[in-house]
Specification:
By secondary structure, the protein is of the alpha+beta class. It contains 7 helices and 10 strands. The strands form 3 sheets. The chain has a 6-stranded antiparallel beta sheet with strand order 5-6-7-8-9-10. A hairpin with a 7-residue loop joins strand 2 (about 65-70) and strand 3 (about 75-80). The longest helix is centred in the first third of the chain and has 14 residues, at about 15-30. The mean pLDDT is about 85.
């Protein structure tokens, strides 16, 4: 008898490989490559600019990743300077691995627009019905994800932030990172405000915000300023 490697129902196990399968399905039925589908369906109609690692030339001013260099002699620094390969080679490899999951490169201005268009009731990225299905996918109980307890759904999370003045706001979005980069995307329906934080470092250290790491610390400061 072969023992199944699947998790029991109700068990949280983060895995983004199913997005690769969805990407293949989208290309098969859409009869276009995934970047073209993204561009014609979302990016162009929403006036959002982004490049796709697997098909586009990486901008020359793309921030280099800074990470733990234990594999290259130790310390912390520029991963590309320490590694025995060029930045183009590194980015191509990342694009081939993460092409359907996390392969878009953009700016906070574009990403924050995407968060608003996706999660806000006034957003134009998806229909109201699709948005309801997306938000309803959140788990009833919080799970430990990216170092904090969050309600997790279909590649999105909801977290409650405590702002100055004893104000609490819920925010939808997703923290993420890998390969020397990290990001945070949050939209607060109470404030009708979206926040995007991008860094060319994993930012794994704990910041000066107590329970919040550096990315959430920045987001809380922005949300708090608008709440005031």
């Amino acid at each position: 008898m072969i023992q199944s490697s699947h998790e029991l129902p109700g068990t949280f196990e983060y895995n983004d490989s199913n997005l690769v399968l969805l990407g293949l399905i989208a290309e098969l039925h859409g009869k276009q490559d995934l970047y073209t589908l993204y561009k014609t369906t979302f990016l162009d109609p929403l006036d959002i600019s982004a490049v796709f690692l697997s098909t586009d030339t990486t901008p020359t001013n793309t921030a280099r990743p800074y990470d733990d260099l234990s594999n290259y002699g130790g310390g912390f620094g520029n991963l590309i300077d320490a590694a025995p390969y060029t930045f183009d080679y590194y980015i191509t490899g990342q694009g081939r691995i993460r092409w359907a999951c996390c392969g878009l490169i953009s700016t906070p201005e574009n990403i924050v627009r995407w968060a608003y268009e996706l999660y806000s009731s006034s957003g134009q990225a998806i229909s109201g019905l699709s948005r309801s299905i997306l938000l309803d996918s959140l788990s009833d109980d919080p799970v430990l994800f990216q170092g904090s307890k969050q309600h997790y759904g279909y590649f999105m999370a909801k977290r409650t932030f405590s702002l100055p003045g004893s104000i609490e706001v819920n925010a939808y979005g997703h923290p993420g990172g890998g390969g020397g980069y990290s990001s945070l995307l949050r939209y607060s329906p109470q404030l009708d405000l979206s926040v995007s934080v991008l860094a060319n470092s994993p930012l794994k250290f704990q910041g000066a915000c107590g329970e919040y790491g550096p990315r959430s610390c920045i987001a809380v400061a922005i949300l708090g300023a608008y709440a005031d």
